Amino acid sequence: MNDRNAELIKTFYDAFARRDADAMELCYHPDVTFGDPVFQDLEGRDRVMGMWRMLLGRSADLTVAVRDITARPHEGTAHWTGRYTFGKTGRKVVNEVDALFRFEEGLIVRHHDDFDLKRWSKMAMGRPVGIVLGWTPMLRAKIRGTAMRSLQEFMSAR
Which residues belong to any copy of the SnoaL-like domain (predicted)? Predict the structure, then answer.
């Protein structure tokens, strides 16, 4: 286990749990890339942090818990749980996320989160949309398109 990189991951999630975007940003390399099932490919600290700031701003009741942190000299993993109310429906979501990291120059240069989009859509959107359509390419594309438009609008307004 690489203690320095494990501490970097812990510092990132501690800041996330405190809703401290500035402290989260200090963990990222300027050339960071981020991906997950919704925001598939974000490049650069401004866009990645724009996404985190937007999500933090829209989730007043967000709680974050991290566990199972592992780290080696160039890569690491963690599992985190996010609990929040999905704003568009008012439904409670418990999202279980596996995170992968790459490190460069003592910072996170690649961050990829993976979670079950079908499970998420059932919680966030409820029946029948989340259950019937949660796994379809059409709904995945709609979720991704809406999220990217929201991020563009958020970043333009800053």
Answer: 10-111
Residues ≥6 apart with Cβ < 8 Å to 74: 102, 103, 104
C-alpha pair distances (Å), 22 with each of 17, 45, 52: 12, 11, 10
CATH of the domain at 47: 3.10.450.50
Q: Considering its fold, how many domains does the chain have in total? A: 1
DSSP assignment of 17-37: HHT-HHHHHTTEEEEEEEE-S
Task: Give the tens place of pLDDT for each residue, 15-49.
Answer: 999 999 999 999 999 999 999 999 999 999 999 99
Question: pLDDT class for 131, splitting at 50, 70, 90?
Answer: low
Quick one: DSSP state of residue 11?
Answer: H
Alpha carbon of 146 to those of 21, 71, 104, 115, 143: distances in Å? Answer: 22, 34, 32, 18, 5
The pTM of this model reads: 0.90
Name residue 113's amino acid.
Answer: D
Question: Does 148 have pLDDT greater than 90?
Answer: no
Domain-embedded: residue 121: no
